[in-house]
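Lab notebook, bench 4. The sequencing result for the construct came back, and we need a structural model before the next group meeting so we can plan mutations. Quick request posted to the team channel:

Model the 3D structure of this chain.
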Amino acid sequence: MTTRLSDLDRLKVVVPKGGGAGKRFGRVKTAVFSPEGTRVVGVMVRRPDIVGMIKRPDVFVALDALERRAKTLVVTNLEEGTDQAAQTRLGLDWDRCIIWSGMDARTEGGRELGFVSDASFDATTGQVECFFVGDGGVAQTLVGALPIPAALVRGYAKGYMVVADEVASSELTGGVAAKAGEGYARAKVRGAAVAKKADDKAARALDKGSKTLGRQLGRTKGMFGSFMDEYKRASK
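Done. Here's the predicted structure in token form:
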């Protein structure tokens, strides 16, 4: 079954508790991709603050340890499906895993295309079928998104998703301008400038994301250690 990253955005995540709806665990923050960048291996979950004030570190949950139930994701394997245990089981090189969402994209020749705004992937295997690059916010609604087949992704370099040059000649999908014709749509889209004019706040958020996410997962090493003990204590 194919799903979209946007379908997971901020979904509620719970852990099983008796026969009820489950114990609140957090909300999806962003998807994590394998080092080659073409497979979703899991998601980072933002944990709820303790008493609304004390910040908890985000938790990695493997894709194969999540089950979709309506508008909720259930963690089916807490012991081996989260953090270091999941990384070890999946053989992940955590320092090389990637967060594509919000990252700038460019061709091998250096043409800037916009921001990675979405992706379609197999919900079971995590294999990406297609990435979508747009200018974000209102601008993407007006102009449309550029679809990039996973096979044309060349990897990560210096803060960018790098894709084959042939992507630059692809047609935009969706959006008022895209439906009006490729030429008009391309005349409209000029990097992040369109998004800034249409929705400056959204553009700033995306720009911040592209600079602070990407290959920053290595910085989370050592942040996870205590959450499992904390959960076990709270469950007693």
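The first helix runs from residue 5 to 8.
Will bring this to the meeting.
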